[in-house]
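User: Hi! I have a protein structure encoded as tokens and I'd like to know what sequence might fold into it. I'm fairly new to this, so please keep things simple.
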């Protein structure tokens, strides 16, 4: 083991991977055989992230495009869904006694818009009722149904008829 040895550990499933990461280098981590650090577990992308070491020895974790995500001070959590890993250096002495890192998703805040939305809805309905009463003088007793509305024809005048339907140019002949 060298001074630049890094360990990646998972408790579930039980897995420990050891590799060297000298200053000024980086390693792609993922399930692919082409990754410098291969995680032989199902559900992990071929390339998940990049773990690198600056020339001064500090570690960093980066996205696949190389954008610096964050600096890593071992022991540190390395979440690669659906698993949770821990990065540590064996000479730290801390990692052997550190309990496994458990990823707990953040709690969702309860919806707080229910009651204010209900109150606004009631105020709007009451405002509409007040507007109808002020315009009409009273509330209608029953809604009008279009079938109840019929035109009044003068006596002796026949009801209008519709002209015959023209043949549809899109329909086949003979119909």
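Assistant: Happy to help. Inverse folding works backwards from shape to sequence: for each of the 175 positions I chose a residue that suits the local structure. Here it is:
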């Amino acid at each position: 083991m060298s001074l630049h040895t890094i360990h990646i550990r998972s408790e579930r499933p039980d897995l420990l991977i050891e590799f060297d990461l000298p200053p000024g280098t980086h390693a792609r981590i993922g399930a692919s055989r082409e990754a410098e650090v291969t995680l032989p577990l199902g559900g992990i992308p071929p390339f998940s992230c990049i773990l690198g070491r600056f020339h001064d020895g500090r570690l960093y974790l980066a996205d696949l495009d190389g954008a610096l995500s964050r600096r890593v001070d071992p022991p540190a959590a390395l979440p690669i869904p659906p698993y949770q890993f821990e990065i540590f250096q064996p000479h730290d002495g801390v990692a052997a006694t550190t309990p496994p890192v458990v990823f707990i998703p953040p709690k969702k805040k309860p919806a707080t818009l229910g009651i204010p939305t209900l109150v606004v809805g009631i105020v709007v309905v009451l405002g509409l009722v007040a507007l109808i009463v002020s315009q009409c003088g009273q509330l209608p007793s029953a809604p009008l149904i279009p079938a109840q509305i019929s035109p009044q024809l003068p006596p002796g005048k026949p009801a209008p008829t519709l002209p015959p339907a023209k043949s549809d140019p899109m329909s086949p002949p003979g119909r």
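A useful reference point when you look it over: The first strand starts at residue 5 and ends at 10. Feel free to ask if any position seems puzzling.
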